[in-house]
Amino acid sequence: MRNERGWRDGRSDEALLGAIALGDEEAGIAFVRRYQRRVYGLAYSIVGEAALAEDVAQEALLRAWSHAAVYDTRRGSVAGWLLTITRNLAVDTLRLRRSLTIDPEAMARLDLASVESPEEAAETDEAARAVRSALTLLPPEQRRALLYAAFYGLTAKEVAEREAIPLGTAKTRIRSGLMKVRQALSSAGTPVGLKKAGEE
Amino acid sequence: MARLQSSGGCEPTRDLLFELALGSLNGAERSIALSHLEVCEACRRQLAELSGAADQLLLGAPEMEPPVGFEVRLIEQVASRSPRRAGDRRRGRLRKTALALALLAGGGGLGAGVALAASSSQAASGPRAVRLAAFRVRGGGGGVAAIEAGRPSLLVMRVEGLTGSYWVSCVLSDGSRLATLGRFNLSGGSGHWSARIPALISSSKVRTAELLGPGGQVLARADFSR
Ligand SMILES: [Zn+2]
After folding, report:
1. What's the CA-to-centroid distance between B55 and ligand 1, angstroms?
2. What residue ranges define each of the domains in chain B, with the CATH number in brackets?
3. Quick one: closest CA in B to A85, which residue?
4. Distance (Å, rounded) from C-alpha A115 to C-alpha A107?
5. pTM
6. A10-101, which class in CATH?
7. Alpha carbon of B4 to ligand 1 centroid (Å)
8. Residue A3 above 60 pLDDT?
9. Fold of A102-191
10. ipTM score of complex
């Protein structure tokens, strides 16, 4: 069942995008199968509502599909590119609906996701695990500030307001949070973070 | 000093790179940072590193199974957004057919056979209309069904998360029900299956396809009329 999804196509992400750019629709579908759970999961974590999350996820995958030809391999991983598209669409969607309303439950899910359980660990791949274990290295208030900025696109000023802390403190939390995550991921080896971080 | 500030030197920019990498820098600060980055290689490198980490953070979000029918709806959007030249409806339809077949065949296994059968009949009878419907089985599992109009018309199913023996039938627009279109066995949890729709029945009259358990109970309906 689940194991059939996505990974059956052994081509790399870059190869799939290249094929999509040439009009190979099976490659497009393989790409969708490979990433739909991630894209939908991220969209849902941010917008906190199934119908809205589906709209965001569909739009993100459609954009990746139609922009496959202009994807620049020097710009980092395909997953990072696709998830950034997803994140931006989700944040735009939230901002369009009044000011930014963050569903506290969705935030809790993200926060919880950084503390992995063994069953979860079996399901997610190395890159996701590396990120999660890097996040567990942060003090909770730093992690929160970083997640607000990274997932919900909140500016330092908005984080300060939300957490009722001075602007300088918000900036420091975001920066040290990102620095620590970056160190944890790069000390784990590859710059794209395909190895587990935070164990040595 | 003041001049440096307004054009954005390394010092003020380094401070802004974090938020820029996280995608949460707006307004004047954003333009200060961007104009400095235009001319400073060192800050560009720093930004690239931070952006890499920021992008990777997004990988940490929990994965979730999208709602049933997600792929079908996506494929319909891909087909409808494809660049269409004037008067080229036929091409749009072919494209939708190709996408639907790719969707149904995407998992390997029986898929190759399905695609082969479909493309050979396609060659014989030209472009075919495809209708898609998703279905969900209570208690888990589901899939996608497609009706391809043509000679012969085909009902194609892709199922996931099911094990055992199943019958497939369909209900026509006048409410009558075919006794059966066929049956299949699944052991691996997922696969593809296809059957000819009897030539006496116009495929446009098929309203729903039904998945039946061994006792004849209806487990799921794929509704093409929606
Ligand atoms: Zn500089």
Report:
1. 22
2. 2-60 (no CATH), 110-223 (2.60.40)
3. B55
4. 13
5. 0.71
6. mainly alpha
7. 11
8. no
9. Arc Repressor Mutant, subunit A (1.10.10)
10. 0.82
